Structures are given as structure tokens and as C-alpha cells.
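Here is one chain, start to finish.
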Amino acid sequence: MNRTDRTGRDPAGANLLAVRSHNTALVLDLLRGAGADGISRLELAERTGLTPQAVSKITARLREDGFAAEAGRRASTGGKPRTVLRLVPEAGHAVGVHLDRDESRVVLLDLNGTVVGERRGEVGLGGGADTVLALVADEVTALVGEVLGRGPADAGTLLGVGVALPGPLDHVGGVLHRVTGFPEWEGFALRDALAARLGVPVVVDKDTNAAALGLAAGGERGSFAYLHLGTGLGAGLVISGRVHRGARTGAGEFGHQVIQLDGPPCECGDRGCLEALCLAAVGRGETAEAARVLGVGAGNLAGLLDIDRVLLGGRTIAAAPGVYVQGVSGILAARARREGLPGEKVPVRLAPGGERVVAVGAGQLLLAPVFGRAGG
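Its structure:
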């Protein structure tokens, strides 16, 4: 694929991928964190541990390629004022796709992770591989064209496309396994098929992992669980600041823990799964019961991993956020009292980002590694 623009130079997105290194990522992350106020080269050297000469070389390259710019001057304790630098957010973009069971959402992010464009579709995994693949490619192409004025392969600032969808799947190979309720997708090489259509890099991960990565990249620290309740139920786990996927991308299959032996059948083939019980309560309109069931699962998770907090998201949560936060929090509080830890319950709150949280996280699959946050 030809990655040069009409001037014959490499486009910005290709340059950002090419210069990506540990030291460059450290500098970029600090530039991003400094915001519009910027940061001086001396401060970059102090915070990264790099020599001033190394920082000067890195920032010169970033300025030359359009990723950093002057943000003014700052008074110095001695000598001439220091020049401060800032990140140029529009110098790079990533597409995030949330492919759900019955709908899709596509967002375009700048380097700050800010949503600068969005499209929604009414076809999800149930539409079948060929139809869904074509529609996702069309939506991505349309969105990139609307915002950047070119197609994905010609938009020089585009780093690639991240796709997040229900698991299980192999995120390294970008191949789907037997998605619960949609066995026809088993073995489908989604990453390669979509990359061939769009002509740009594609990364695939579970919806909950992508959301967890996005939340960590957006400022959530420590160890937490993101619980996603929509058309299914899953968890994204961040342990000590890094997304925990497991050896086979199997971590976080939270909804398929059995909590009622010989309970109602689940689409995964087992019986009494947390997902089946929770969705059954939702279907009956018993929101408080669904929250209680979710809380039991969250309590099991907190007991196993001793996490700092629980974040809730997904369209079903969004329909009654207060009920779910209160219900899950109540179960965790009761657990803390039984364990003799009053006041030490795991806090529960809504995940920031609303219904975009998975799509934004999908975009962070491309952006986070640029800033040295591939694991969160």
C-alpha cells in the first residue's frame, strides 16, 4: 500500500507509527497531559529521566512531523523564558467501532481521544458476516470522509481502525471464536477481512476489554472492573493499571459464571449463568432484581481480585443508572459488613463516556500504544 500523500511525503499517521518508540511515547504522553498550556523541554527531561539532548531530538522530530507545536513562553527562574510545547490533536486520528449484537456505532477520535465524528447503524452481528463487514466498511469510509475529507487509505492522519465486539475471540490474530448467540461467526478473520477492504491497519478486541482500555487511558487508575450490561453481560478488567486479557483473551467472561446450579439455560450452553439470570430479570421488567443479580456477580469478582472500584456501563444500565448503581453498591456493602470491614466496601459508579464508552475504547486500541499505554 502506498502511504505517501500527493506531495510525495509520508502522511502524518504513517510518521507517527514509524517514530513510535518508548522514549517518544513518554514525551507524547506528557505533551498530551499538559493540554493547551504546554510543557517545556526541561520539564519533559525531568519527568522522563531523558537527557535534555534526547528530549530536544525527539521534540524536534515531533514538531517537524506536525505532532507538536509551540504553546508560548513561560517565565524562567534565570535566563531567557522557556518555550513550551503542546500536542497537536488533529495531527492523528483513529476510528473506533462498537459492533454489538443488534447495532453498531462508529466514532472518530483525535490524538486527545476526543470524539470528532460519530455514526450509528441499525445492523449488528445478527446481520451475517458479509453484510456486516460491508456495512462497517461503508460507515467507516463515510465518517472519515465527512470529517477528514478523504477515504481511510488516503487520510494521512488516520492511524487505523479498532473494532470492539462481544467475545470470545483472539485479539492477537483478530479472529472470532464462538460468539454467544452467533455461532456462524466462529473462525471469522475479522481483522484481515476489514483491513483488506479499508486499506488501513485494523485491531480487534472484546468490547469490555476495549472499554476498560479506554477508561484507563482516560485517567482511571489502579485496579478496577468495568461491567457492561447491554444485550449481553461481560467485564473488562484492569489490574494495577493494565488491561488483563488472559493468555487466550478469555479473561472477563463475567456473564458466564454459574451462580445457580441447574438454573435456566444460557445461550452459551450452560445453565444458571449470571448473564441468563440478569437478562431474564431485565426482560420481566424487574430492574431491581437485575441489579441485585449483577451485584452478586460483582461481589464474587471483588472477592477474587480485591479491586479498587466497579464501573458500570452499557445501554441497559443507561436505562436505569441509579437503580443499578444502588443495587450493586448495596450488595458490595453487605459483603464488606460480613467481612468486618465497615466503610471499606468497593465503590460503584457509572463509567464515564456513556453509551460511547466501548466505541471510544475501540479507538484507543490504536491510540493508546502511541502514548505508551497499550496495556492501559
